Amino acid sequence: MPYDRCDRYDCDVLVIGAGIVGLSAAYAVTRAAPGTRVAVLEKERGPALHQTGRNSGVIHSGIYYRPGSLKARYAVRGAAEMVKFCAEHGIAHEVTGKLIVATEREELPRLHALVQRGRENGIPVRELGAAQIAEYEPNVRGLAAIHVGTTGVCDYGAVARQLAESLAASGGEVRYGAEVAAVDRRPWGVAVRTAGGAVVRARVLVNCAGLHCDRVARLAGDDPGMRIVPFRGEYFDLARPELVRGLVYPVPDPAFPFLGVHLTRGIDGGVHVGPNAVPALAREGYAWSAVRPRELAGTLAWPGSWRTARRHWRYGAGELHRSLSKRAFADAVRRLLPDIAEADLRPAPAGVRAQAVLRDGTLVDDFLIREAPRTIHVLNAPSPAATASLPIGRQVARRALGVLGAAGV
Ligand SMILES: Cc1cc2nc3c(=O)[nH]c(=O)nc-3n(C[C@H](O)[C@H](O)[C@H](O)COP(=O)(O)OP(=O)(O)OC[C@H]3O[C@@H](n4cnc5c(N)ncnc54)[C@H](O)[C@@H]3O)c2cc1C
C-alpha cells in the first residue's frame, strides 16, 4: 500500500472505531473546524456494537475519581453535557440519583472517603443512616449510604447513533464493514487498508478501536506500552423489578477500576444486576464459550496479565466463583437486596471492558490518550468513558486538529 507525497488524501482526519468515543471525536472535529473532512471506519455493520452498546447505561456523576484526574474532570462535565445532549436530541434518559450502600463495618471509612471525594469533585452528596436508606429504596438494607443526586441513565447506543447522524449532516462519513487491517504511516500522512482491500489516505489517524486499540497502535508501528486485557461483565435481569426504584451500588474496592455488582433501573424500566468482572477468553468474548486462541495467547504472553493475576488472585477467584455459580452471585446481591432469590435473576447479555494493563501489572486507572507522529491513540477509555465521551471527543479532536495545524493544513 505504499504511497507518495503527491497522492490525494481521501480525508483530513480518519477515525478507527464507531463506538461512542470515536464518533464523539469525529463529530467534535466537524464542530471545531467546519470543512475538515472526517471519515470513520468501523468493522461492524453498525455503530456501538461493542462496549458502547453493552454497558450499564449509567450517566456517572464523577464521585469515584481522583480529583484532577481526566476521569473526574471529564465525568463531571460529561454527565451534564450528556443529559443536555439527550434532551436536545430526544434520546431517552433520566436523572435518577443513586445510592452507594455500605453493608459491612469495614466499608464505612471507604464510604466516608467517597463523600469527601464527591465534595472535592463538586458533586452533591447526602449522607444517610441505615433507617434513611428506605426513604429512597425500601427493599435495600445497609449500615449507611450516600445519595448522589446527579447520577442518571440513558441509552448510549442511541447517543452513538445520533452522533453518527450529526456527523453525516456535517459532511462526515462512517463506513461500516470496514475493518482496518494494515496501517502505513509516512511523514506526510497515513494510509490504512481494510480487510476488504480498500485503501483510505488521511492526514491524521485517530485510533478509537476500544478492545482492539493496542493492536491498532502496533499496526501503526507504535509501542503502546500496554495491552488491552478484556474483562467480561455479566448481567442478570431482575424478574421482580418493583424491588428497586433507582440505582443501588456497593462501596467499591479502591484497588480496582470496577464498581462492583450493582442494581440499575434502566431507561427501559427493567432492573439490571451486574456486572461482575471475569477474564474474557476473547476480546469480544461475551460468554465462556467464546474463545479465540490467538487473542488469548496474546493476553497470556503479556507479563502484566500474570502480574495482575498474582496481585489480585483472591478478588479474581471470588468473581470467577460468582460467574460459575448463580447461587453465589445471588448471595452477593442479597447483601444489598435481602429479598431476592436465585430464581429472580434471569441471564442478560454481557459486555466486555477494554482495560489497559501495563507491563508491571498496573491496571491503568485514568483515561489514556497518547500521540505519535500523525496519530492520536485512545488507549484506555473504560467506564465512565461513555458518560465522559463528549469531553473526551473534544480533547481528541483538539489534538488531531493540532497535528493538522502543525502540518500547515
Ligand atoms: C460491562 C460494561 C459496563 C459499563 N458501564 C458503563 C456505564 O454505566 N457508564 C459509562 O459511562 N461507561 C460504562 N462502561 C464503559 C463504556 O461502555 C466504554 O467506556 C465506552 O463505550 C468506550 O467506547 P469506545 O468507543 O472507546 O469503545 P467501543 O464502544 O468498544 O468502540 C470501539 C469500536 O471500534 C471498532 N473497531 C475495533 N477494531 C477495529 C478495526 N481494526 N477496524 C475498524 N473498527 C474497529 C469496534 O468494532 C467498536 O465498534 C461500561 C463498559 C462495560 C463493558
Automatic annotation (TrEMBL):
Pfam family, one: DAO
Domain of life, per lineage: Bacteria
Keywords: FAD, Flavoprotein, Oxidoreductase
The FAD dependent oxidoreductase domain, residue ranges: 12-399
Keyword Flavoprotein: yes
Required cofactor names: FAD
Similarity field: Belongs to the L2HGDH family.
Protein name per Swiss-Prot or TrEMBL: Hydroxyglutarate oxidase
Organism of this sequence: Streptomyces chryseus
